[in-house]
Amino acid sequence: MAVDNKKGKKESVRKMFNEISYRYDFLNHFLSMGIDILWRKKLVSLLKKQHPKYVLDIATGTGDLAITASRIEAIKIVGVDIAEKMLAVGQKKIEHKKLTHKIVLSIGDSENLPFETGTFDAAMVAFGVRNFENLDKGLAEMYRVLREKSKVYILEFSMPEKFPVRQLYHFYFKNILPLIGRIVSKDRGAYTYLHDSVQEFPSGEAFLSRLNKVGFKNSTQLKLSFGIASIYVGEKS
Fold it and tell me: Could you tell me the residue ranges of all domains in the chain?
C-alpha cells in the first residue's frame, strides 16, 4: 500500500481495511494457518490474571480479540477502530454470538481516544500498533486511559532472529502472502503493505523503549512461535 501524502497513513490504512473487510477474517486465519487464534488466546490468558472489569480493545477491527476476551469475567469490553466496515463485520459476529451485553464496538481514533483519563482496567491491541500514524501518541493515549497499576497487552508481528526461521519468514511475507492475499481479496496493496509495515515496525527492545518513553514500567516481551510474533506488556505506575 502506498501512503497518500495528502491523506496520510491513517486515512490510507482506514481505506485499505475497509476494502478488504469482507475477507479479512478468512485471510487472517488462512495465511497464518490458524496460529493467530492461538496467539490471541495467549494474550487473553495473560489478561485474565489481572481480573480486569473494563477492558479497551484498540484497533479492534472485526472484533476477534474482543470476542476471545469475552470469556474472562470483565463487565464490559469496548472495541474501537477507524475502519467502519471492519466494525460492521465485527458487530455481526458479536450479535451472532449473543455478546452484545458484553462487547461494544464504536468508531474511534487510537491516537485521540474518546475516553476520560483512567477509564479502563486494561487495554489490548492485536496487530494494530504498527498501523498507527504516530506510534508514540497512540501509546501515550493507551497510557492515559488506563487506571493506575493497570496493564496494556500488545500482540504484534516481530522479526525472528535465528536461521532458518528468519529467512523463511521473510520469504513468506514478501512473496507468498501478498500473492495469496491479492488473489483472494482482490486488493493489490494490502498484503504488500503487511510485509512493509512489519519490516518498519520497531519490534523487540526498540518497542519496549517506546513503551517506557510514554510512561509504562516493567515492560516485557514474550516471543511466540520462534519470534514470529510477540506479546508486549507494560504497566501504568
Answer: 8-159+202-236
Q: How far is CA 93 from CA 63, 78, 90, in A?
A: 8, 15, 5
Cell numbers for 88? 460492521
| pLDDT interval class at 148 (50, 70, 90) | very high
What is the Cα–Cα distance from 123 to 55, expressed in whole angstroms?
Answer: 6
Q: Does domain 8-159+202-236 have CATH number 3.40.50.720?
A: no
33: DSSP letter: T
Tell me the residue ranges of DSSP E strands in 22-169: 54-58, 76-81, 103-107, 120-126, 146-157
pLDDT tens digit sequence for 168-190: 888 887 888 777 767 766 665 66
SS3 203: coil
pTM: 0.92
**Residues 193-233: pLDDT tens digits?**
877 888 899 999 999 999 999 999 999 999 999 999 999 99
Q: Which residue has the cell 469496548?
A: 78
Report which secondary-structure segment, H or E, holds 92: helix 84-96
Strands 146-157 and 120-126: parallel
